[in-house]
Structure formats: structure tokens, C-alpha cells
Amino acid sequence: MNAKRSEAATGEAGSVGEIMQAIGARARAAADVLANATSEAKNAALLAAAAHLRASIETILAANAADVAAMQAAGSTAAMVDRTRLDADRIEGIAAGLEAIAALDDPVGEVIAAWSRPNGLAIERVRTPLGVIGVIFESRPNVTADAGALCLKAGNAVVLRGGSDAHRSSAAIHACLTAGLEEAGLSPDAVQLVPTTDRAAVGAMLTGLEGNIDVIVPRGGKSLVARVQAEARVPVFAHLEGVCHVYVHAPADLEMARTIAVNAKMRRTGICGAAETLLVDEALAATHLAPLVMALQDAGCTVRGDAAVQAAAAGVEPASEADWPAEYLDAIIAVKVVDGLEAAMDHIARYGSHHTEAIITEDEAAANRFLAEVDSAIVMHNASTQFADGGEFGMGAEIGIATGKFHARGPVGVEQLTSFKYRVHGSGQTRP
Amino acid sequence: MNAKRSEAATGEAGSVGEIMQAIGARARAAADVLANATSEAKNAALLAAAAHLRASIETILAANAADVAAMQAAGSTAAMVDRTRLDADRIEGIAAGLEAIAALDDPVGEVIAAWSRPNGLAIERVRTPLGVIGVIFESRPNVTADAGALCLKAGNAVVLRGGSDAHRSSAAIHACLTAGLEEAGLSPDAVQLVPTTDRAAVGAMLTGLEGNIDVIVPRGGKSLVARVQAEARVPVFAHLEGVCHVYVHAPADLEMARTIAVNAKMRRTGICGAAETLLVDEALAATHLAPLVMALQDAGCTVRGDAAVQAAAAGVEPASEADWPAEYLDAIIAVKVVDGLEAAMDHIARYGSHHTEAIITEDEAAANRFLAEVDSAIVMHNASTQFADGGEFGMGAEIGIATGKFHARGPVGVEQLTSFKYRVHGSGQTRP
Prior knowledge:
Two copies of one chain form a homodimer.
Chain A: H1 16-34, H2 39-55, H3 57-73, H4 78-84, H5 88-103, E1 111-116, E2 122-129, E3 132-137, H6 143-153, E4 157-161, H7 167-183, E5 191-193, H8 200-206, E6 215-219, H9 222-231, E7 244-248, H10 254-266, E8 275-281, H11 285-298, E9 302-305, H12 307-312, E10 317-318, E11 332-338, H13 341-351, E12 356-360, H14 364-373, E13 378-383, E14 401-402, E15 410-411, E16 418-429
Parallel strand pairs in A: 3-4, 3-6, 4-5, 7-8, 7-12, 8-11, 9-10, 9-11, 12-13
Antiparallel strand pairs in A: 1-2, 2-16, 14-15
């Protein structure tokens, strides 16, 4: 947190409450129109926004340089500055992302199910937009474009509230989106960026802007997500943490187990689908434990283990109770020997975060039980937990991953940003 | 409201808060086990409960007689007493309802979608239970069985809180469900009835029993639903009201319009899918308005109309602004002449409740626009709004109708009481 967050950078007159109320009302009005916008208009807006981004590289980089300079002057860490910093390649990536979202199928109007009744009524369940989505994010300015575009594609209006550190960069990107909407004949109110960095704006969004925000999506660290989950008075699509497990169950192919364990932990340690705990079946302790631990260590990972793990390989740090629920997001893994499938599932139920868990085994029956009984958004057999991602699932793009059980669970792509309604086609039927 | 509601009728020691906390903890534990119960066990419990209901008719009727006597002594209205009163036929109907739910397909484990990725990963989206459902109902004791059974079928634990007026009847029915669960080897904690009539129990449920209730379903009048929607800190599946519209658009077959309008309004006036407003296209005023109004009047309906409607037929009461958003739930209808499709949709957007609306027309293009653009859970063409019902939709049974856009919209049947997860089948894939 830094003191700048309470500093207003508003281009509008009025109190924060008044500004936010007006934003909410405009978003609802835009959503009502956008719900019936054509795919062509929405895609045209996305493609025009991408063109504006490419044409505005200098402007965006100048805004970004001002953000970065202010962060450095305020003593922000190098990691924080890096999350905010843009370059020409990153801006090209943002533009390409908009084009990729334009290329996705439009979910709105899709018939999800259709059936007929004995009386001749034909019933269809059809996707519709959700309404207005509030996105609260921190320092990554690309979220302005990524989240704005996904919401727009699904026919929703969006209210974006970015972190104060990157507000100049976000505003420059947002101007490109607005220009794209206007060129396509759509209201710029469909994608609004909160113009104040006053933190009271977040509070207003969490209460739903008087019924004008239907769902909140937080994009950022655990403290942001925790605040949103605790305070939101509207539904939230989020995950608080990803304490993902890889369980190696006998019989398991050692080479497959080793490759998956190293990939699940070390491919990228900072993403929510990175493995944080490796559970090894006691039946495999003699054959698989030491090679698994050493492969992780060789890949640069610190291993913390229980007594059996410490005995199996050199250099294992003792794990404490605090390690089992830990989300390291770093090159550290907790390793434990468990007495079979039940014990592994009990451990996951006790310490996991209902995000993503994988079992590595040649035993199909054990795999099927694991997939059926582990209560996580994503359960995998013989695959790396790092596949927990909307793009990897074939959804094209995602706004995040949800661990709740309502409406959206797992990767939240354009389909998950829709609702549905029933269309009933009759020929004069009345109910007896 | 009556004074009895604050009177405790608890069979457990401890404060209401302690009782409710214990109920929540037991429900969560039961839900965790029930999520993996077989269809056979769940169905066996339902069938055994039905048998217990039939065997317990005398006991249930005695409990019900005590409830009815207490209500009459307290001066309850005849309508309230009738909602609580049971007879042998009603109990047989409740038992048959349990058997019908047992006969439904088990939604848990159903593969909703399945696809493969270029890397060979096979991804399935599979239905899972939601968790623990809280049902808050008023005087109809049959809800104990109907709602309990639907939740159980979908693999959820349920916490039932019935109105104090019917608490003896509900307890007698609940005992049959508990006996059925035990005979099937399932925990009786899967279906718990709150044993206290203290209204603080409702407040505790609305806060989610410390994370142990996942969704609330209110079953009762508008004041109950409004309180639940305002105070619940967990998702709610509900509709506040059903201000349903029938719009007759030119060209429309007069006989079809007349039959549907009378059925939509008068088949049963007290259900949420009953039409409350009839909109007639100006282009049809000369030909259709008078016959439609007179048909409704002939069926015993009071018609309140704007000036054009008053001019078209005798005996039309003048409609005031208060009539357009009114949910009469009675033999009264508001009728208005509108200047075409746009005006009809504007009226519905302004005064409707997003429940169910029908267009009667031979103009397919107009019908398609109405079905696409009207933002209601159910939109119909040439059919009566009284079909807004899970049974009529072929869902087998419903716990209610939802007008929210999250998770469940329209009739809430067993499928809507489920969540889903992703099962990923690999053969050693790692993410590049």
C-alpha cells in the first residue's frame, strides 16, 4: 500500500460516491443496449481498439514512463515496477489479445440446450449477457484491455478500477478501447475506467453501485481478493489461493511422475496453478521418493519434507505444519509421504484450496476415485497442474480462475461471463 | 406475523446461535459424504421415506391437527390455515412426489461437455453437488419433503427452517425423511429441520452459518423473499414477484390471443406465472381489444385499463400508475394499448419483474425480436405464461423459480441445484 492511493486523480466533479453512482447508472444503461449488440459491432470495436493501441504506442509508453517514475520515486520494489512496466512488445501483445478475443465465437445467443414437450412446446436455453461486471485490479495495466475485451465480447458492460500505481498507463489503454467502441457505433460507457484513485471507489463497487454491478472480478494478490470476498455484497468470481497438489500413487511411471512434478512446480512458480505440495504414496517411497526429490532440487527447487522425505534425500528442509497449507508462489515445495489414496485425499481436503489437483498413477480405478472425490475446480490424471488455465483449456482467454461453486468454477472465459434464459415456442398452447 | 414466532420450541440445549452452528457443522460433514453417495442409496432413502410417510398418516394428521388448532386459536385467517392443513390425499401426494424425484436421473456425475486439446488432454465438465442448501419456508409443511428430496437427489445436504405455524406437521414429515435416510445407510444430517421456531435461526441461516450454508432458497410470500434478498450473505435462488405480461402484436389470431390471455390470467391467479398485465398493439385495438377484454370479464376477471381500453368495453375500471407494476395474484388484470413492439418492450422493461413474458403474434420476426430482447428468465411465443413451471418444462420438479442471472435462472430443478468441475485426462502432458 502506498499513500498515493488516497489521492484523487479524478477528471469528474463531485464526491467519490457521486462519481461512482453515475458510473454505475451509465454502465447499466450501456449494458441494456449492449445485450442486443451484434457480434459484428462488438468485434469491430475490439479490432478498432487493437489498431488504436498500435497507433498509440508512443502515448502509452509516455504514460507508462510517468507511472514507473512515480513508483520508483515512491520506493516501489523492482517486482512491482516490473508488473507495471510496458514496452512495445507488451503493447503489441495486448493488441493481439484483443484480436484473439474478437476471433472467438460470440457466446450470446448460443443455444445451450433444446427440447420439446409432449404438448408441442419447444423450449430452448439460450446464453445471454450477465449485465455489468466490476473488475478490480492492481498494477498490471494490460488488465484494462484484457478484462474489458472479454466482458464486451460476452455482451456485458464493465467498470474497471485499476491500481493507482498504473493509472496513467491504464487510462492511455482505456482511451484506445473507448475510441474503438465509438468507431463501432457502441457506447463508450460499455467499458468505463474509474477516474479516481480514491480507495472509497473500491468500497462503492463492492456494494454493487446500487444494483448496477452484477458481479465483481478481483485481479491481483491475496490481500485484494480477501478484501473483495469479505466485503462484496454481489457475487465474486475469484480464487483466494492455489495450493495445488500432485499426488503420485502406486503404480506410477517414475519418468512421468518426475517430469510432471518438476513441470507442475517449476515451469512458472508464480502462477496459481503451480504445484505447492507433492504427496507420494508410501508404496512408492523406496523407489520414487528420492528421484522425485532430487529432480526437484536439481531444477532449483527447495524441498521441505516430513521425516520420511528428509531420510530419502540430502538437503531436504524439515517441513512444519505451516508448510502444508502454504502457497509459496516460489521455488519451494512441501513433500509428504502418505499412506495411500484415502490419506492423500484427506490431506488435500484439509489443506487444499479447491483449485487444481493432479494424480499420477497407472491405476485407473484409483485415478477415477481421485477425480470423482477430490472437491476442486479442476482435477487431473497424469497431467501437470500448470494446465489450469483458460487458454490451455481451449477457452481462448480467461479473466481468472474461480474456486467457488456458483455460476463460474475453474477458468472464467467468455462463456462463464454469460447467463441464460429460456425461449419457449408455442402454437397457442394453454396450460390445462 | 404472530407472537408465537419468538417462542422457542427447541429439542436441543443451548442458545439459538449454538444450535444453528452445530446444525451447520453437521450439514457440511453430511454434504461431504453425500457428494459421493451412489444414486442407489439416495433413491433408496427417498423411496423408504415415501413408505414411512404412508405408514405415518395418522401421526402426521395428529400433528397437523394440533398446528391447525393452534392457528385457529391464534386467529389465523382461513387462507393461512388452509395452506397448513393436510389430509390423507395431500400426504399421499407428498409421498408420490418423493417417488417421482427418486425416478429422475441423478444429475451428479453427468458429463455436461467433453472435448480434447491438440496436446491430447481430454477435458470433461462434470456435474457435482453444490454443498449445503438452506431452505426457509412458511406455512406449507409439504415443503419439508419436496425441498428436502430435491436437495438430496442432487447430492446436497439441506437445512430446512419452516414457519412456526406448521412446525409440528413439518417435524412429523421430517421424521419420515430421517427414517428413510437411515434405512438407506445415509446420515440423517443430510436433511435437518431446524428444531427451534426462534426467528434468530433465520438470521443465522442468512449469514451462511459460518460458511456452512452455500445457498438460500426462500419459499413463501413477498415479505419473506424480500427479507432474504436484503439480508442474505450467501447466494439466493428466488423471485420477488412475477409481474408477467402477455403482449398481443399484429397480426395475431384473435381466437389464440383470447384463449391464451384468459388461461394466462385465470387458470390459477395465485401462481407466480399468472399474467398480471395484457398489452395490446394499437394496430389491433379496433379488432381485438374489445373481444379480449370481454373474454377476461366473462371469465370473472376485473379489468383495469387505460383510456383506450375503457372506451373499448363496458365495465373497465380506470388503471392508475400503481396498476402497471402490480402483482395482483388475483382475478384482476391491467390492460394497456401500446404503440407497437418497441413500446411493449419498453413497458415490460420499466414495470416487469424479469420473470415470464409472452408475445402472441403471427409475425415471426417480431416474435424473434421479443424473445431476444426481453430480459426475463422465460420468454414465450404463442403460449400461456402459466407454463412457467419446472414440471411443465420437463424438469420433473422444482424448488422454485429464480429471476436472478447467476447460476440458476427460471425453474430451479435438480440440475440447477448442482455445480460442476473439470476432469482432465492426460498421458503425461506437461505445459511447455
